[in-house]
Amino acid sequence: MPASRLYASSAWGGRIDWAAIGASPSYDEMKQELLEEGRRLADRPIPELTQELYGLFEATGNRLAYEGVYFERRRRLTTFALLNLLFPEEPSYAQHLEEIIASILDETTWCLPAHMQGQSVDRAIDLFAAETGFALSEVAALTGQRLPRELSDAMKAQVNRRLFDPYLGRGPYHWETADHNWAAVCAGSIGAAALLIEPDAARRAAMCAKAVGTMNHYLSGFGEDGACLEGPGYWNYGFGYYVYFADLLRRATDGRADLFEDGKVKRIALFQQQCYLSGNRPANFSDAMPRVNVHLGLSDYLAAVYEDMEHPPLAVRAAFLDDHCARFAPALRNVIWFRPEAPRGADWQPGSWYLSDAQWMISRRAADAGTFGFAAKGGTNDEPHNHNDVGHFILLADDDPAYAADLGCGEYTAGYFGADRYAYDCAGAHGHSLPTIDGRLQASGAASRAVVLEASTSELEDRFVLELAACYPSSGLASLQRSFHWVKSSPPQLTLIDTYEFAEYAKPITECIVTRCQPRILADGRITLAGTRHTAILEYEAGVFEAAVEERMFANHYGVQERYYRLQLIAKPRTSKQFTAELRFVFQ
């Protein structure tokens, strides 16, 4: 099938009419974002990727310096490609597009330094090399004869040299059998690029067959509940590339190869609408961001495939600049797969879900007073992008600072992925709402896991009870049961009960709440956590704890320093081997 036919229709049967999109007011916000970014970039020269920048990661562990320039170049590609498609009569867009394509073709490698790990340039394929090849292939397919023939031929030759030849002849690659986003992004990008520009049918079929095999490995990383343990940002990313490849493959085979038929794929698709607590604020366990906007194109496409899929609220739409990596594939589909006429609510539909494989409890409560969200997790301390966080929980309301927070993703450095990972606040147990036993934090590793004793949801309340003693080896604990009782009144309230039993003798205990609200101690047994719109009162038994507040700073994913508070309730000395701590969060 010619590549042009793969884009002949949208997911709903209509042709992609770029002129109509360009003229439609439904796309005005998207177009304005593109036009503004185009004006910004047009006034600047193409930044250079120097050897000095490339060597910084090896020398210092810093990724941001090189990657900032790398992604700025990819932003030029994505911006001017989309502007050229929307407004082909403007010659400057074509000129800027041709210039950045030529510059990218001259790059020594399309891989990031952090991913090379001693590989030769001619063999290495990482996430971003695969994405770049896919992007160039799509640009070539979509622009058709608009690009100079010499440049178009050079694009295809470089994709062949950097992706197709190594994939077929120099593997296998570690990601070919991975069960996380690398598998979907790398294999999906190469398979999609092959469908678009590889002229040899046998080579095209071979690459697609390899890609489908890797996609099966990717799906194996999900439980039957469909939860993405890496959060909605990685759902957008990894599952997005699964969908992009699956869509092109289904079109290329006239539906004979349909990767959407697997029931597990549907459950993964539905994870998005289950994981949000309010607006763009998800249950951001692991290396998920506290705010994750939604790719409306991807969501609307999946809603056309699966009738149970909810069209997200327009308010949570991912803006063009939200993706700091400026990936072309999602940016394109946020335009061509968007359904302006789709029915949407002002916020997500309320509900509660227990995801049994992930051991996540998630609840979204909508009331006259606002939208309230609660989430808690069991699981293990050996998960993708792992944090030591078994038994951790999140509590928030509307757009207020989180009353019980997950800090999310820290800055990606060599150390963050090295032996010192759990010294970082984002990943370590000390940066989560978890108790400390005799000065000990939770241990990392697969043996540090929860046992779910109860998980129930209803219209009026949710209950979640975990056994956590295995997370504190050598602590002397015989049992630690953590119980959550979420009452969906208006406004709701959360009761947390930790029941400790020591095998031989009592040991010191400190309850910890990680919050973005500055705690204010009202009295013994009452602490206020004031948000912008709401206030939560934390109540506990007077005379049992000594309260202390620690203000801390951490580097977020973008290297920006942020503030949070560790509220510590230090249990007073006792002799009994049994101890129960009851904390109640009551919204005012």
TrEMBL record:
Residue ranges of the TM segments: none
**Which protein, by its recorded name, is this?**
Heparinase II/III-like protein
